[in-house]
Design a protein that fits this description.
Layout (H helix, E strand, L loop, with lengths): L2 H18 L8 H20 L8 H20 L8 H21 L12
Helix pairs in contact: 1-4, 2-3, 2-4
């Protein structure tokens, strides 16, 4: 996938998360890291047809959000149907990097780093 196409598609997926998904708003950086990893990893697995772990309560929580996200991505972004599994993995890894930046490392929210939380 070309770099420009990848950036455009990541931006579309990111925009959906930022406007429609409440799971991105945890008040601590470590919660956001776990949440981003859990939801986006499971979304990737669903989109790739891989098995998804659902053994723990945390797994199931992330899985539910991932199911909804994968369904929305498939219905809103029809170009996802034309992607190969390796392309999906590249796209979702780039999306995770972007979401981590926007919600954690690039965030101006100082509460994310308060030690008392």
């Amino acid at each position: 996938m070309e770099e420009d196409v990848l950036k455009e598609r990541v931006a579309q997926l990111e925009d959906f998360i930022l406007k429609k998904c409440l799971w991105q708003f945890h008040s601590r950086a470590w919660d956001r890291e776990r949440q981003n990893e859990g939801v986006l990893t499971k979304t990737t697995q669903i989109l790739c047809g891989d098995p998804v772990a659902k053994e723990t309560a945390e797994d199931r929580c992330y899985w539910v959000d991932a199911v909804v996200l994968a369904e929305e991505y498939r219905s809103r972004f029809t170009w996802t149907a034309s992607l190969t599994v390796p392309e999906i993995r590249v796209l979702m890894a780039a999306l995770k990097d972007r979401i981590d930046y926007v919600t954690i490392t690039g965030s101006l929210n100082k509460e994310l780093t308060v030690k008392q939380y």
